[in-house]
Backbone:
């Protein structure tokens, strides 16, 4: 017999697995983007376009920094929401 608690547990497991898949996909895509930026920076230096190389390196450094800052803001908002009392209280 399927009980409500079993259904809730299955739903929670499914949500955790789907979130894990999205996290892995996001990490791989950002890794590929940063590898592309590094390779294009080396090519710019090879063809003596030093300003272009500096701009690419700046973008490669700033993207993870901005992502980290936005993630911290999102976690802070989530923590703040958790501290608020529900309407039923």
Residues:
């Amino acid at each position: 017999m399927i009980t409500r608690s079993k259904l809730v547990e299955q739903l929670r497991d499914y949500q955790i697995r789907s979130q894990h898949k999205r996290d892995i996909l996001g990490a791989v895509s950002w890794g590929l983007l940063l590898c592309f930026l590094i390779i294009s920076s080396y090519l710019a230096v090879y063809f003596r376009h030093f300003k272009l190389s500096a701009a690419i390196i700046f973008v490669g450094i700033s993207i993870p920094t901005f992502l980290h800052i936005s993630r911290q803001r999102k976690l802070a908002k989530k923590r703040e929401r958790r501290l608020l009392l529900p309407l039923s209280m």
Notes: The radius of gyration is 21 Å.
